[in-house]
Amino acid sequence: MTGPRLEGVVLCRVRDERLAVPAEDVVAFEAPGADVAWAGRAFGDTDVPEGGKILRSRAAAVRVDSVEVHGEALSFFEVPPLLRAGGLAGFVLVAGELWPVLSVERLAALSRSAA
Amino acid sequence: MLENALVADAHGHLVFACGSSLYAVPADTASEVVNVPTLTRVPGAPQHLLGVFAHRGEVLPVIDLGRLVGAATDEAFKRAVLVRTPRGAVALTASRVLGVSVLEGSFDPLGDAGVQQHLRGPARAPAGEVAVIDTRSFVDFLAQA
Questions:
Q1: How far is A30 from chain B (nearest CA, A)?
Q2: B122 upstream amide cis, omega within 30 of 0
Q3: Using alpha carbons only, what angle is made at residue A74 by residues A70 and A75, rounded to the nearest 5 degrees?
Q4: Contact call for B54 and A91, based on CB within 8 A
């Protein structure tokens, strides 16, 4: 496929939802334990599970259910004009599915504000 | 036709149902009717934004009109009307698509706040009373909602 590509993302699962974080944004994966917001809150899910992984950037941290580092270049889509105020960086296409791309800092902020 | 009635325009409007209500968009802004695949939800999105899907090389947001106007249903929408405006494209959930009609009646805003400012009417199509979506201001409203 031609068009913009994005190389190096961390694919995150939060219940049935999909999220992608630029790999360069992540400085550490940590076991849960600290008081870190769970990303499911950003989807309105209030039934917070245990476990998962913490993604930490230089500025923020957020907990997700599972992570997978994806090193291949992926097709990248720009954010539709309607969603530009939401802080998304775009979308990547993985196995026919769209994954919203956003920074750890933005995801953490969305997860905290919805809590 | 009533004394103050208007005919919307020579090109007509695409009329569709969402739940028990009828809506219309100018036919020249409705680019196609699409089947809605499994959606990707967007973090932090309002409830009326059901998610997005990829279509012909772009990402399209899907808006549940019922939730937006406070008439949500449990219906799982399988189709949507794709509307294009200078502020981008948006897919509006549709239970049924009734086709293009020339509308008559009033085209005044249905309210002075919220989404009602961007719906006009009451207008009439052969299928019944419709709320006409002012697509440009409607999409601007969605971008700020």
A1: 22
A2: yes
A3: 155
A4: yes
